[in-house]
User: What shape does this take?
Amino acid sequence: SLDHYCQRIQNLIKGNDIMNWEALGAIAESIGGLGVIITLGYLALQIRGSNRVACAQSRQSMSAFAMSISRFHAEFADRCAKVASSEQLSAGDKEFQYWNHMQMLTYGESYYHQFQLGLMPDDHWKGFSNWIEAYSNSSGFDEFWEREGNSFALDYCAWINERLARRKNPKTGV
Assistant: This one.
């Protein structure tokens, strides 16, 4: 009856029923532990979702960068063709070539670091690294790299230098 439950609650409050206080404490600890487990599970799901979003944003930014380079090349197609194939370049052509290399290697550096952070899948990076290695054969690249290579991050410079060494001596890589 209701009187019986009221009496038990009064005994619990007065401390006359020690076993019930211990049981209540154990129940509270169990509920607290369950709350921690649920919170950790929720945080794990949030982090996983956040990582997917970061990867998607990374790919989007690299695609936007690539599209701006493509638009630039389309807009200046004749000049790009000239600096890619001609040994006799005007001062303006050489400046154009310089900034073209800077643009491509800045793009490469961004891609490289996003790959290093785990934001690019291996197969995307492999294709891009093959492209950048082929790009290093373009007209004026060696002169540009000699002049500006130390302007880039050390790890990226080391990676580019490895590719250049392989290009110069494909059998030994040196």
Q: What stands out?
A: Helices lie at 2-14, 18-75, 77-85, 91-116, 122-135, 141-148, 154-168. The chain has a mean pLDDT of 82. The two ends are 92 Å apart (CA to CA).
